[in-house]
């Protein structure tokens, strides 16, 4: 299933790294965060290279909905309550500066990426009270925010918060334009990083500054990101024949929808769940039901899904990777708002590498740990990660898999051991280990994507066991049937 973006953009191709080289800075990952960081570092005069495991934009960036907005759900009121009013100001300032930086880059490099200025709305069908508070706090934090009851939505609402001066665009057209002139190595997965040295399958890079922009950091210690984040997955459909709003919308109630236009298509998103917790499936079906109810004439053109890292206290991790690694940096935990998040990260990381002050950086640093905001989840993220399974893969006897219908997958238990089984439409069986190679949690079957997903930190594998999403770095063990 390809997204609207991959179907409508041709990205430049780059050679793989072959041999050893040096650079002032090396960025791991060529998604939105990695490419923007490299662009801003290059502009600041830093000699920078980018190492990408697959193709540029091939991670979550190709499957985003690409709203460029400071409106990240109901964040400002929470920030002011849990942290301080000043924290809300710094959060707002980082996102608003990021929107401005998108305008600058698009104008300066003349990037044709369907960029359109618009407003963003949070809406509720249940209550106006929390939205009134959110509008007030966001306005106090410096955003052009106001409560309203006027929207273009095809259903009644109790209220909405409107942010002016936001935007939408085509993320891959933008990424391709921004990458032009950068030194990028594709098909170059980073295997290990030690001190200043990055090791890949076919060469090394030695760099003074190393930036992990690889979505979920694949190094467990130091940093302990596996204790700080899980991943959440959401689903999107692109529909034709629906009415097209100018604004971008995001519902805050359970089952709320994310809505924006892209040319003559309506993008409808929703159905979020923790990665690895979608045993029942039916997310695309649910989205289609929503679409049919509000836009009965619409037809599906594209469908896709993606996932993002959810930090403990709602603030991304941007800055020094850990206390023990002064020359390593990270940009992660964008909680599905990684368009402004990536740009804000790129600006902060450029400043960190070049020794400039950045007034917003402290709020995003790993050192910000606040017990009141994080303690409970810190314990539960850790606790989620301690299930025990044997890694050895066995092939369950054919009798145990006979009842599994074609086109379905699931876990088969036999004599106290477990294996993941998927049966293709023609009856071919694929058997994989359900022990996640990252830290050993039990994988769960996702029937909407036909993938094995890890509930602990969100690694994903296709039904043949091939790695799709990190932090795991290896494929699953498989058994021949
Ligand atoms: C359904 C959905 C809708 C969203 N919509 C929006 C939106 O409207 N607005 C918004 O602001 N945000 C949105 N987001 C969030 C946004 O899409 C992400 O936060 C953003 O794309 C993350 O970019 P990234 O560069 O961090 O990660 P990625 O795009 O995943 O890039 C990471 C790159 O690192 C590479 N990599 C990984 N490991 C290695 C390794 N060992 N060596 C080399 N390379 C490696 C990967 O191949 C990948 O290309 C959405 C998220 C979801 C799930
Ligand atoms: S992703 Fe960490 S154990 Fe699976």
Automatic annotation (TrEMBL):
Source domain of life: Bacteria
GO CC terms: cytoplasm
UniProt entry keywords in alphabetical sequence: 2Fe-2S, Iron, Iron-sulfur, Metal-binding
Key word Iron present: yes
Keyword Iron-sulfur: yes
Domain Rieske, chain residue ranges per copy: 396-481
Matches recorded under PANTHER family: RIESKE 2FE-2S IRON-SULFUR PROTEIN YHFW-RELATED (PTHR13847:SF274), SARCOSINE DEHYDROGENASE-RELATED (PTHR13847)
Protein name: FAD-dependent oxidoreductase
